[in-house]
């Protein structure tokens, strides 16, 4: 099904029958992705007296309770409420869900201290003068075990503050990355990339300067079959009034 989209006076065609899902699901039947030092998610039938919410165990419906943390267990989208004293809701601030996006692949650069990082220079080299609203960053090497990787205490790659500032200055509103965080795992609470991207790093900023409409989506997985280049992004979120919520970003190749 071919759809024609007019975006900022330009016309594009996408095939709605060929979605490219870049989310990671919770699957308790196997080892799933995990970060931030907490236990794995649980999906269990409700038990009430002699009744168990499982068709296999005699109920007429499956009736499960799910225990998870969006930041630790699943692809999730967060807003500035993730780092502010007042817990702003991503469900409140994300009001549009379809964006012109660019998929890029980057080998993180190794620093002298052993950290692997994404730099401003790397981003500039691939984005150049592209006018986009969202960026999808695939780190290399890209192997499928990212969907089951245990990230706690591994010091994964991260985005340097200079890179986040660059993306903000390009007015990119939605940053998606295949890592547990855009920031260093243990950074003494500085959260340099988060603060830079949402424009909350300067304590003199008033609330009107904060990028409430901007989002960060972490724990995506971009399959190697998806080429770098321009796409339309459908950023679907679950309706939680929380700083972060599980999300299902889906790409559509521009024809």
From TrEMBL:
Organism ancestry: Bacteria, Pseudomonadati, Bacteroidota, Flavobacteriia, Flavobacteriales
Record's protein name: Metal-dependent hydrolase
SUPFAM superfamilies (UniProt xref): Putative cyclase
Protein's GO biological process: L-tryptophan catabolic process to kynurenine
Molecular-function GO terms, alphabetical: arylformamidase activity
Entry keywords, A to Z: Hydrolase
Pfam families per record: Cyclase
């Amino acid at each position: 099904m071919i759809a024609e989209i007019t975006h900022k006076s330009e016309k594009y065609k996408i095939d709605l029958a060929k979605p490219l899902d870049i989310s990671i699901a919770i699957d308790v039947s196997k080892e799933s992705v995990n970060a931030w030092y907490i236990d794995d998610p649980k999906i269990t039938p409700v038990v009430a007296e002699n009744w168990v919410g499982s068709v296999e165990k005699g109920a007429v419906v499956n009736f499960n309770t799910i225990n998870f943390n969006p930041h630790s267990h699943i692809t999730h989208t967060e807003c500035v409420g993730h780092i502010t004293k007042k817990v702003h809701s991503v469900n409140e601030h994300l009001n549009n869900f379809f964006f012109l996006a660019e998929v890029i692949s980057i080998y993180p650069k190794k620093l002298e201290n052993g950290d692997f990082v994404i730099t401003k220079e790397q981003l500039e080299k691939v984005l150049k003068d592209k006018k986009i609203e969202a960026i999808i960053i695939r780190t290399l090497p890209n192997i499928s075990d990212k969907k089951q990787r245990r990230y706690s205490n591994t010091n994964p790659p991260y985005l340097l503050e200079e890179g986040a500032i660059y993306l903000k200055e390009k007015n990119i509103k939605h940053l998606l990355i295949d890592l547990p965080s855009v920031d260093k795992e243990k950074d003494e609470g500085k959260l340099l990339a988060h603060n830079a991207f949402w424009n909350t790093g300067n304590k003199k900023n008033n609330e009107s300067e904060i990028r409430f409409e901007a989002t960060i989506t972490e724990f995506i997985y971009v399959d190697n079959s998806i080429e770098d280049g321009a796409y339309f992004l459908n950023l679907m979120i679950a309706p939680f009034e929380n700083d972060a919520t599980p999300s299902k970003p889906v790409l559509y190749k521009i024809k």
